Amino acid sequence: MNWLVLGGTGYIGQHLIQALRSPNQTIWVYTRSVDNARKIWKNGEVKLIADFTELGETKIDIVLNFSGAPIADKRWTQARKDVLRKSRVTLTQQLFEHFKAFGSFPELLISASAIGFYGNQKDNRVTEDTKPHLEFTHELCAAWEEAALSFQEQGVRVVIPRLGVVVGKNSGFMNKLLPLFRLNLGGVMGGGNQWVSWVHISDIIHFVAQAVQRDDFKGIYNLTAPNPVTNRDMTQSLARVLKRKAILPVPSFTMKLFLGEMSNLLLEGQKVIPSRLLDEAKLEFKYTSIDEAFRDAV
Question: In the structure, how many helices (H) and strands (E) does the chain have?
Fold first, then answer.
């Protein structure tokens, strides 16, 4: 069986490959930099390609699309927005065109999205049916999902997880927070009442494994823990786990000044519930408590 992974050098992609690979599989990893990817995947553990044509006549069975430039690493200038779109939407469109030209599509595409699809929802309970608030993150995610859903027209089973903030050892989220909190420099962001919907990396892996094994997994799923928390509760939880103080709040105006539009990611939020996973798929989450998730992550 042949797998193709986009985003295989990223945090989620690396964990998925480590957890799901087996001796009877060949895993191809698409990367923008083969040289950098070789530092992660050594000794021929995966096949690295920088262009889809390098697949040659290989028939791909399963595609995991977790590509995308980090959304919170840089200020959202127009140039940065273009990078974010190209690394998600354009790349997924190019993937479609490759399979169309090849004449054969995979059986399954699992293509990531994010809860940013919903935009700012204030205190509303958010399910897969919630109407989005129109803003940049919605536009980005909606276009990304549309590109992935086009595969359905070719008979591909498409699964789209809308991911929350990823908690896990050395995740980008944790790597940003831990140095500050360990120095007692952590604190509430903005008003602190904005919701944070999160998911542990172990539950992402479990979701993908189930989506591969179960044909009833189709369409869009909120992939977040069942218990979202406010920014204030999250801050207190991490301080508790680290046995530190979190007494230095970051005012909203300061974040808007330095981060611009990107500050919306931190000052606004969504109270997301994984309704389809709980009600239809009956998926059990390993981490439902933010305290437990943080304890594992640190």
Answer: 12, 14
Residue 258: its pLDDT value, please?
74
When pLDDT is cut at 50, 70 and 90, the band that residue 85 belongs to is very high
pLDDT tens-digit readout, 141-158: 999 999 999 999 999 999
Note every long-range contact of 40-48, with CB atoms under 8 Å and residues 24 or more positions apart, other chains counting. 40/9, 40/14, 41/8, 41/9, 41/17, 45/21, 46/5, 46/8, 46/17, 46/21
At position 105, the amino acid (one-letter code) is F
Rounded distance between C-alpha atoms, residue 76 and residue 116, angstroms: 15
Tell me the CA distances in angstroms from 278 to 74, 101, 145, 162, 209, one per residue in order.
35, 38, 22, 15, 16
Tell me the pLDDT tens digit for each residue of 238-269.
Answer: 999 999 998 889 888 887 877 788 778 888 88
